Amino acid sequence: MLAVVLQARLDSSRLPGKSLMPLGGKPLIARVMEALNRIPAELRILACPEDAAAAFQPLAAEAGFELFTGPKEDVLGRYCLALRAFGVTQVIRATGDNPFVFADAAAAISAEALALGADYAGYSGLPLGAGVEAVSANALFRAESEALDPYEHEHVCPYLYKHPELFLLHRPLAPPRWQGPSMRLTVDTPEDYERAQLLFAALDGVGSEERYRGPAIMKAYRRGR
Question: What is the predicted pLDDT for the residue at 15?
Answer without folding.
Answer: 85
